[in-house]
Specification:
Blueprint (H helix, E strand, L loop, with lengths): L1 H12 L4 E2 L8 H13 L4 H17 L8 E5 L5 H10 L6 E6 L3 H15 L3 E3 L6 H8 L6 E6 L7 H14 L5 E7 L6 H8 L5 H6 L1 H9 L9 E8 L8 E9 L3 E5 L4 E5 L4 E3 L6 E4 L2 H10 L2 E8 L3 E8 L1
Helix pairs in contact: 3-4, 6-7
Amino acid sequence: MDNIIKAELLKGLSASPMYIPAWYRYDEEGSRLNDVCIEQCKWYYFHRFELKILSDILSEIIDYFKDSRMVVDLGSGNATKTMLILDKLLEKDESLTYVPVDISTEFLNKTASNLKTIYGNKLEIKPIGDEYIVALRRIKTITDTKLIVWFGSLQNVSHEKQLDYLLEIRNAMQVDDKFLMTLDVTDTSRKETIELAYLDPEGYSENFNLNSIHRLNKEMNGNIDVSKFKIKNELVANSASDNCSNVNVWIEAIENCEVDIGKLDLTRKFQKGERLYLHEEGGISCKYTIEQLEYILNKASLGLEKYWRNEHAAVIVVNRK
């Protein structure tokens, strides 16, 4: 795993423009900072509207998953939203199998321990600490009727890779399985609202995003001095049906400087104004129209069975074609 991480980091830091993969933010500290950001940052609208719509329609959507005996939770985090589903399913079933998936094994184990305390023997917990695609290929071998949930995280994968993930989800599904996800459907004319959500004045988003820099310095013997950079972001709106809108986040050199990443045997010189993106090319925090969503689901041989939406969030039930 360490060699894979090093290879991905070296690939990004040797690219033009340079980038650090978005997933690298999510060690134990990054996962904690993410939870703090989405729960405490008043500028981050998506989490509040996502919870509201899930709560509003919970009794309605649960009918779609009444035969599920297993819940697979991609990017489980602290499982706050998934617990809404678990509670409802356990009203009619005495027990369930819960498979949380998260790249941060330490954070995942804490979540599993907390849920075991809450649910006891009602919930058989089988955590998978790995990257999504690796986890989905393991899940593919499970024949139990499954509900796969992915709350708000597909949008944090670059658009180029979203189809790859959806295809893996489709391949992991049996014919009777369901896939439930939430997505940001904010109108991109609200540029200021969107940009403030991902770079807020109180610094919640900045602390989370810069965790990839701090982790690089700590784990890879880097010497990136963040005081020589300024963090910035920008909404890139796209109305084409075969694409989506996204947010770019980067740090920009405010003076000429040089950085060394010891364990990668890499030295890079930055000119004033040069950028280091905190995600792969194609942006993160994607925003969708329903037409854009249907397009990419169709390409993955997945069907949009039902959706609900409010001002910012949509809940989508997806089946395998």
